[in-house]
Amino acid sequence: MASPLVFYFDFISPYAFLAWTQIRDLAKRCERAVEPVPILFAALLDAHGQRGPAEIPAKRQYLFKDVARKAHRLGVSSVTPPPAHPFNPIHALRVASLPQAPEERERIIDALYRAAWTERRAIDAPDAVAGVLESAGLDGAALVAAAQSPDIKSALRTATDGAIARGVFGVPSVLVDDELFWGTDSLTDLEAFLRGELPAFSDEGWRDLPMAAIRKGSRSA
What we know:
Structural class: alpha+beta
Oligomer: single chain
Helix content: 40-55%
Order of helices and strands: EHEHHHHHHHEEH
Shape: globular
């Protein structure tokens, strides 16, 4: 059986939201399954010494315009900003980390993404997450309570650490057949790869390329 598309995401990312609206149809076209894996984007930033796009004023200003353009191109209507951004996604991520049947997990992810990025609803506190899930016909209170267990908190940390170990540095990222695809724009390349339409890439000549200049204050300095 063909390996699934491991979809790394965080609710804080509008780009991950846009990718989530596309990845399941892409997987069906290529006869693959999707394995959604919630991870903490902030931990990726810390691990790689980066700042988030929304933490850089000029990039933050551009980000929302870029998201609107990409949403239009992808046919995703009614994209709206959340009540605040960045926001704390930890409670939503823990709920999405609960062991569930694939259909139930998708319902949870759909509801939380829809609330944050199309309904302008907060998902940054346990009560807010529970309310969103209740609106989607789920037992929000029970799910949020279950997500507070040490095992689920540990599962989210383990998934995040595992993503970092596999070279994931941002969301959305898709890992399949030992190849990593990052960002909404990479979905076109992902589909071409799955169809065998991308040329083989060798990192020879790139892997050991020396750095001739190091920016002052960079983590590598």
